[in-house]
UniProtKB/TrEMBL annotation:
Pfam families cross-referenced by the UniProt entry: BTB (PF00651)
Source species: Panagrolaimus davidi
PROSITE patterns recorded: BTB (PS50097)
Gene3D superfamilies the record matches: 1.25.40.420, Potassium Channel Kv1.1, Chain A
Domain BTB stretches: 19-85
Protein's name according to its UniProt entry: BTB domain-containing protein
Taxonomic superkingdom: Eukaryota
Length: 353
């Protein structure tokens, strides 16, 4: 019986089909039986009630194309329709609007079969928008197994933000994920024309990924090198938090990086040149970080070459740094010489002022 009704619908012959409702798609007519439609959907029932169809004139449809509505009606008649990569998104939307859960499930099964790394972005957006839970689970499983392919720059830049977030949770410490997220951020900012400056917009958007992006397995040296090139991307105060396991050479690189970032960020913030950045400005920017830096993990050579030589940001505790830093027996002479030079320099400065 159902097959006979469907065959009559397929014929689209008003002479034999017992049709009592006509839809007009810009002059192209689609015939159907009202009973089949209204018993499938409360929305259709309200839509096709007498108050909307008081006469027998065709109902003009502008929201959907003839082909989409034909496949939709085909499903109502037979429980089946022809799905393609071109019509699937519109049919999911149609099923959602008219409340046809069986059609949504049918579409979801099709989407699970066809998604891959090339169309995953668009399909993920559909799954998220229409709450296709089984599809979302399959996508997450796929991401977990194929994140290396997805974090390639040319693929990630056009993915939706929430999917990039998911990829970040499974990147496993691959530094390419860090670079890829920046490229996504850069591309997003270029597309979204907002009032903030480019660097500020990148920093704001990139910060949203920090909770899921950084893991202890990251190569800190690569991160530091990247941030030195883009010192605007992460605030100075965030850096020790996102790379928590630092010691030895890593802590020296961290200190050097945050110093350069602080200098750059203060220059941008206060519109100063590098030469105009004052002792007080740098000290204030770094004071919270300095409290948590383990200077005892630094080598004497680093403290002498990087910190003592640039003593203006840290005049109050250079002696303490020299005392705490790592040194061997052969460096004792260098240590005492540095202390004497520093004390002598401070005396000269005191006399001058």
């Amino acid at each position: 019986m159902q097959q006979e009704k469907y065959n009559l619908f397929q014929s689209q012959n008003p002479e034999i089909g017992y049709f009592d409702v006509i839809f007009d798609f810009n002059g192209k007519l689609l015939y159907a039986n009202k009973y089949v439609l209204v018993t499938s959907s409360e929305t259709l029932n309200a839509w096709l009630s007498d108050r909307w169809t008081k006469d027998e004139n065709p109902i003009k449809i502008e929201t959907y194309t003839f082909d989409i509505f034909y496949q939709f009606c085909s499903f109502l008649y037979s429980g089946n329709c022809k799905l393609t990569e071109k019509n699937i998104f519109q049919l999911v939307d149609t099923a959602e609007f008219f409340g046809i859960q069986l059609l949504k499930d049918f579409c979801e099964e099709f989407l699970i079969e066809i998604f891959n790394e090339n169309n995953i972005g668009k399909i993920y957006e559909i799954a998220e928008r229409y709450l296709l839970s089984n599809l979302l689970k399959e996508i997450e499983r796929y991401v977990k197994q194929n994140y290396k392919a997805l974090i390639m720059e040319e693929k990630i830049v056009n993915l939706p933000k929430s999917l990039v977030m998911m990829i970040c949770r499974y990147h496993g410490g691959e530094f390419s994920a860090f670079e890829a997220v920046y490229k996504w951020t850069e591309n997003y900012v270029k597309i979204k024309k907002e009032d903030l400056e480019f660097e500020e917009k990148c920093k704001y958007k990139f910060s949203e990924f920090l909770p899921v992006l950084f893991v202890p397995e990251f190569d800190a040296n690569k991160v530091f090198a990247f941030l030195v090139e883009k010192p605007f991307l992460v605030s100075v105060s965030q850096l020790p938090k996102i790379i928590p396991n630092y010691n030895g050479k890593r802590i020296e690189k961290l200190f050097e990086t945050v110093y350069q970032m602080a200098e750059y960020q203060m220059k941008k913030k206060l519109n100063f040149s590098s030469d105009e950045i004052t002792e007080e400005v740098i000290r204030n920017e770094l004071k919270e970080i300095i409290k948590n830096i383990k200077f005892s993990e630094m080598s004497l050579n680093f403290v002498l070459e990087f910190i003592v030589d640039q003593d203006f940001p840290f005049p109050s505790n250079i002696l303490e740094l020299l005392t705490e830093c790592k040194r061997n027996d052969h460096q004792e002479e260098k240590y005492f010489k540095a202390v004497n030079i520093f004390i002598y320099t401070k005396k000269l400065i005191s006399k001058k002022f």
